[in-house]
Structure formats: C-alpha cells, structure tokens
Amino acid sequence: MKKLPKKTGEQIAFPDEFFARELHINGRINCTLYESLKKALRVLNKKKGYIIIYIESGGGDFFAAKKIYQLFKTSRNPVIGIAERNISSVAAMLVLQGCKYRLISAETKMFLHNIKQTVAFEYVPYQTHKKLSHGFLAEEFKKAEGYQDFVYEVLIDASGQNKEEVARILLEEKILLPAEIIKFGFADRII
Q1: CA distance 12 to 6
Q2: CA 117 from centroid of its chain's CA atoms
Q3: Alpha carbons 52 and 124: distance in angstroms, whole number
Q4: How many CA atoms lie within 13 A of 154 on its CB side?
Q5: CATH 3.90.226.10 at 7-190, yes or no
Q6: pLDDT by residue (tens digit) across 50-105?
Q7: Cα(6)–Cα(96) distance, integer angstroms
Q8: pTM of the model
Q9: Is 4 exposed, middle or buried (0-12, 13-18, 19+ CB in 10 A)?
Q10: What are φ and ψ of residue 176, in 5° steps?
Q11: N or C end: fewer C-beta atoms under 10 angstroms in the chain?
C-alpha cells in the first residue's frame, strides 16, 4: 500500500500553498485536456510540492487517457488524484490509476468496463449504414484487445489483483461503491 502524506486523524494535512496546485478534470477525457494538463504540469513541476487533481468524468478517448496516465506517472512531483462523485471508463481505469495517491470521496461511484465491448457498441449499431467488412471489424477487435491488455496491466499493477479477477470485474460492468473500490484496490483511501 502506498504511504500517504502526513495526516491528522482521518484528514490529510497539506501545506497552505498546496491549494494553489489544484487542477480539475470535469467531463470528457480527450486530447485537448491532455495538452492542457501537460502544460499545467510543466509549470507546476518547476516547484516542489504535491499536485492535486480532482476528477469527475464519464471517460472518453483511450489514447488521451493513456497519455494522461503516463504524464501523471512520470510527474516530478507526486500527483494526488481525488475521484469526486462519478468516475467511469478510462477516467477510472487509467487517469486515476496514474496518480501516486488515489483518493475517493464517500459519494464516489466508479464504473469500469471491458474495452473490447466498447468497440462492438461503437461500430456495430452506429455504423450499420456503412458496409463494414468482416476484416475491418476483426482488425478493430484485435486493436481493442491490445488496448484491453494495457488496461489489465495498469489495473493489476495498481490493485494487486490477478488478471482473472480484474477481467471478471470489468466484464460485470457494475457500478462500484466506495467500499468496493477500496476492497478491489482501485483507490487508496476514502476521504
């Protein structure tokens, strides 16, 4: 388990200048958000101290989330992610997991899913007006398997669960409440 910053009781104590180092992710994860976070972290990493990221997102673009995950993992200063009310998909599976400390509120609900199933929902029902070849769909599913393998690696590393358990949780596609999020190792503490 990760060691959290110095605490007083159940409250985490941060220095006064800490709150000037907050960023908020609200809404869809995309490349524009990644570019904004990259610029912000470049500035915040010039001085030593924690960087806090409040996250409330239903997910978004896998590639942008993967870049944000790597950005947080390689930050010179520790990134503390706080999942607020709702956090889903790549926001929960990659963005929050990239943070050194992963905190959730008592109201947090987390929705996780299998990436490969998303491909089926995006291409089959919404693109039926196009002639989609079997080869095209097979290629998209193959790519999705690679994306899913990356998500498995991240969640296995972050949670300590084995691949079968992580796969089972993702396939269930259920909303996890705070106690379950902690139990499965997808966050460090409820605040």
Answers
A1: 7
A2: 18
A3: 39
A4: 28
A5: yes
A6: 999 999 999 998 999 999 999 999 999 999 999 999 999 999 999 999 999 999 99
A7: 21
A8: 0.82
A9: middle
A10: -95, 135
A11: N
